[in-house]
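ugh finaly. both done.
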Amino acid sequence: MSGYTPAKKAAARAQRKSNVSRVIARGMAKARRATARSGIPSVPARVIPDPAVPDLPGGEPPAAHAYIAREHLRKDIGSQVRVLDLTAPDTPHGAPAPSRDAEGKAMPYVADCATHHQRKYFGAYATACRAAKASHQWCPGCKSELARHHKLHSKASAQASPRR
């Protein structure tokens, strides 16, 4: 009979609580709450003025954005998907131009599967980031790799645990 016993539950709980990334995140959140409660204003991000960046009336430069806005590595299948901002100032020469959808709305973001050379255009950054994580829904190469990956794991797990 398999299942979670009280000992297994306690071991899993201890392992979760000692996870390094979880401990670091908990410490950072605690520090943020303490700073917010104390009323101390946060330190401004820009301390030294940059002569190349013109000052705006508000005192802060516009948020800089890069051509490669985000990269996502699909660990399960090993494909690399990037979110590209086609309106960024550092867009390379020869990059695809922003597209328009059927209604004429601008689509300045691209989810680009660098492994399988597939692209899909999006109007919002958040939508493109979600699509990068779910590349198996729009990239045929990722879809076939994921199907092959699951078949391999299903076959391996079936061989590892014999039926009684």
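ok and the 2nd:
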Amino acid sequence: MQLYIYDLVGQRWGVERDGTYAPPAWHRQFWRRDGRYHFVVRVGGRPAGFALVRELPALGGVPAREMAEFFVLRPYRRRGIGTRVARALFTRFPGRWELSVLTWNVTARPFWRRLIRRVAVGRIATHARLKGELTSTVWHFETGTRRRRSDGRRSRTAAAARSSA
């Protein structure tokens, strides 16, 4: 968690008295379990990152999820690990998604833009969000389940195939 916060905000936040980044209340909030799913990414048995998927309030009776946090340690980046983990989570939790990235996070924005274009079924909505002094790019999209084709192989829905073309 500390490496993630440092990588994300670095000099934007100061170090706490105990040497950690972010106040203890932030850490307690992050690890709450209600409506949240925590995943540790491992490569060769070693921790390589984590993801936090959070349930959002249903809109019109349709549940939604948020990729609340997502982190891959630098030595494991650009090896397809983050893409595989994110795709696995979108497959595990099909349906409506919201994903936001701080606008100054120039590494994450292109990664998510490309990935969302590949996994989204149908329309992708994007807008800017201002929260305090932080501006984020926010994507709203849906993911679908994979169906078995008549030949037994897996294929994406027709809508998914059209949206990624």
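summary for the 2nd one i guess: The CA atoms of residues 148 and 154 lie 5 Å apart.
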